[in-house]
Design a protein that fits this description.
Largest sheet: 5 strands, antiparallel
EC number: 2.7.13.3
Helix content: 40-55%
InterPro entries: HATPase_C_sf (IPR036890), HATPase_dom (IPR003594), His_kinase_dom (IPR005467), HisK_dim/P_dom (IPR003661), HisK_dim/P_sf (IPR036097), PAC (IPR001610), PAS (IPR000014), PAS-assoc_C (IPR000700)
Distance between the termini: 115 Å
Domain Histidine kinase: 357-569
Domain PAC: 159-211, 283-339
Coiled coil: 323-350
Length: 569
């Protein structure tokens, strides 16, 4: 195939020859001297071929140049294509948002990162710096703009800054923006290319670490961090201590860093506790001990000492964190508490023994007195004053006997905190109680309502529950109102495993504002009744609590009283 210049030259020669022949024919037909036309025709042919050769030479030269230029353009295009491919690969690999800003035209282009990272579609992205700056957080915009334009004016090549960039959904992300400035031959800034990196997670982690650092620094507990391992059989060396540690131990951080916590060990330190710590370190487990530690000036103090292992993302032990508390005062209070408990225990034993001895020693002479008084009843006494004295003496002796019996009951209750329980029929219990109080019930004729069908059986101590109900019913009759008929309501309900036994009357009531904290006290009396001893409610509460229950009271003066007893059934 002929080259393009030769084809053009051949076409030129053919056309020129055709025109020369045509002109020659016209001249032969219309000119007067035909012999000169052949010479002119030959001359034209020679001229045509000569110019054709020159024309071919010029075209060949131009074609060589064009081929060279074309090859260079192809090579340049391939380089540009390869560069663009590398650019796209790098952009994808780094997940950065690349931007290209032509400063003079104020024209910015963005890569796909603006959509992948910030959620903006290409049609929503502006092509000027205004769109870019409008998306920067208002608190960061002025600072960033001033810094950027100052950088451009100074004509330094590299720039970077951190700011918050608004996403398509309205939220902000922390970004790190790096830029590179391109200048013309006169040093004028014409173009800037940059990459925006999302550092939101790094910023959040940085803020979290700052918060943790603040907590550690401000903590009242002593905190120290050690290396992961030790080669000399000691606790690993310290790499950090907080201010609270320096305050507690007296050591400044620069004095103790690089040391092992073994330096706090002294003559009275617990060696077994130290072995426990070393074993936990060997097994990479958390441990907690209490031991005596020594400050910089060799003063002893009790410390609660924990060692917590810290593992990195690969599960390898990196450090130990130790949290220490000065528990010297706590230990001192514990010793005082133990001493007081021992004293109270001994006092209780002494009082119990005293109660047993007193009740035993009083019972014998009291029985003799009761016997003598019974004998005197059969002796006629004419002196009325002597009879009155003997009646008072008999009554006092009888009350003393009842008091001693009640005290014995209290001692028995307190001495037997766990009583044997059985399934008891509440109906049978009330029958026994009513039987014992038949005289009082017949005399005062109270209206008594029982609702026991929801709890027919109760797991309790039969003697205690009879005593409790007997005392409460006796009190209701004793402290009835003289202005209205006595009404007594007793109900039993069960919710889950808890039984509620409610005992209500419309008697004279108790002033709980004045006596609320004394209702169940020993020998507490709230009414001026001559035969009131103030022991019944104390016995009731003691018996209820011995059986694992609770008792509360609700009362209002001249309206009545309610006792609510709860048991686990």
């Amino acid at each position: 195939m002929k080259s393009k210049p030769k084809q053009i030259t051949l076409i030129y020669i053919i056309i020129s020859l055709f025109m020369a022949v045509l002109c020659h024919k016209l001249l032969v037909c219309y000119a007067l001297k035909a012999e000169f036309f052949y010479l002119s025709f030959i001359k034209d042919i020679i001229y045509i071929f000569f110019t054709g050769v020159v024309f071919n030479y010029i075209l060949s030269k131009n074609e060589s140049k064009n081929i060279s230029i074309l090859k260079k353009m192809q090579l340049t295009n391939e380089e540009i294509k390869e560069s663009n491919e590398k650019y796209d690969i790098v952009a994808k690999a780094t997940s950065d948002t690349i931007w290209d800003w032509r400063i003079q035209e104020d024209y910015i282009t963005w890569n796909k990162g603006i959509e992948n990272v910030f959620g903006y579609k290409q049609e929503d992205v502006g092509m000027t710096s205004k769109w870019w700056f409008d998306k920067i957080h208002p608190e960061d915009s002025i600072r960033m703009s001033v810094k950027l334009y100052s950088f451009i004016e100074q004509k330094t090549e590299k720039w970077q800054d951190q700011y918050r960039f608004r996403c398509a959904d309205g939220n902000y992300k922390y970004v790190l923006d790096r830029g590179f400035l391109l200048k013309d031959e006169n040093g004028k800034a014409i173009r800037m290319i940059g990459a925006i990196q999302d550092i939101t997670k790094q910023k959040e982690e940085e803020q979290r670490l700052k918060l943790l650092e603040t907590v550690i620094i401000q903590s009242k507990d002593s905190i120290l961090i050690t290396e992961a391992n030790s080669t000399d059989g000691k606790i690993p060396r310290i790499v950090y201590v907080n201010p609270a540690f320096s305050k507690m131990s007296g050591y400044e951080s620069d004095e103790i860093l690089g040391q092992s916590p073994n330096v706090f060990k002294g003559p009275n330190s617990d060696s077994e506790a130290l072995k426990k710590v070393l074993k936990a370190i060997k097994e990479e487990k958390e441990c907690l001990i209490e031991t005596i530690s020594y400050s910089k000036d060799k003063q002893e103090y009790w410390v609660r000492f924990s060692m917590i292992p810290i593992f990195n993302s690969e599960g390898i032990l990196s450090h130990w964190i130790s949290i220490q508390q000065d528990i010297t005062e706590e230990r001192k209070l514990e010793k005082e508490k133990e001493h007081l408990i021992r004293e109270l225990t001994q006092n209780n034993k002494d009082l119990k023994q005293f109660s047993y001895i007193t009740s035993h020693n009083l019972r014998a002479p009291l029985s003799n007195l009761m016997g003598l008084l019974n004998l005197i009843e059969y002796i006629p006494i004419d002196n009325p004053e002597l009879q009155e004295i003997l009646n008072g003496f008999y009554k006092s002796t009888y009350l003393l006997n009842e008091t001693i019996n009640d005290l014995v009951k209290v001692i028995i209750i307190k001495d037997n905190p766990s009583m044997q329980k059985e399934m008891v029929s509440l109906s049978e219990v009330f029958e026994n109680v009513f039987s014992q109080l038949s005289f009082q019930i017949e005399t005062h004729k109270p209206i008594i309502k029982l609702k026991l069908d929801k709890v027919p059986l109760l797991n309790t101590n039969k003697a205690y529950i009879e005593s409790i109900l007997l005392n409460l019913l006796t009190n209701s009759i004793k402290y009835k109102s003289e202005n209205r008929k006595l009404k007594i309501s007793i109900t039993a309900e069960q919710v889950d495993q808890t039984v509620f036994l409610t005992f209500t009357d419309n008697g004279i009531g108790i002033d709980l504002e004045r006596n609320g904290d004394k209702v169940f006290g020993l020998y507490q009396r709230f009414h001026n009744y001559p035969d009131s001893k103030g022991l019944g409610l104390y016995l009731v509460k003691s018996q209820v609590e011995t059986m694992g229950g609770t008792i509360t009271v609700e009362s209002e003066v001249n309206k009545g009283t309610s006792f609510i007893i709860t048991f686990k059934n």
